[in-house]
Amino acid sequence: MESLRADVYEIVSQIPRGRVLTYGRIAELCGWPNHSRLVGRIMRSAPDADLPCHRVVNAAGRLAPHFPGQSALLEAEGVRLTLAGKVPLREYMWDCE
Asked: Confidence band (pLDDT; 50, 70, 90) for 66?
């Protein structure tokens, strides 16, 4: 499990400003497809304040419910949310490959 945690944090640390990844995509990149909820739990307990956790959203582009400053951080990087408060993934998803 510690190996997965390290892999998740490494991937998240590489997400560039103004881009996002989904929990599911991070799980795939770590070799744990279908474990997006586990990635979410790992992200929720991230200890590093410098880790850009705000750049991780769910598969529908929704923000984390327990992260009140996430929208402001994303908007400060140029990410425009829809009227429903979601990230348009086609526009802002990071193509990390």
From this structure: confident
> What span, in angstroms and rounded, lies between the C-alpha atoms of 84 and 22?
18
pTM of the model as a whole: 0.93
Angular region, 61: left φ>0, alpha ψ -120 to 50, beta rest: left
In tens, the pLDDT along 2-52 reads 889 999 999 999 999 999 999 999 999 999 999 999 999 999 888 877 899
What is the set of domains in the chain, with CATH numbers?
2-92 (1.10.10.10)
Kindly state the DSSP code that residue 22 receives in the 8-state scheme: E
Radius of gyration of the chain (CA): 12
User: Which residues share a beta bridge with 56?
Assistant: 21
Asked if residues 61 and 86 have their Cβ atoms less than 8 Å apart, the reply is: yes
CA distance 72 to 45: 20
CB 44 within 8 A of CB 67: no
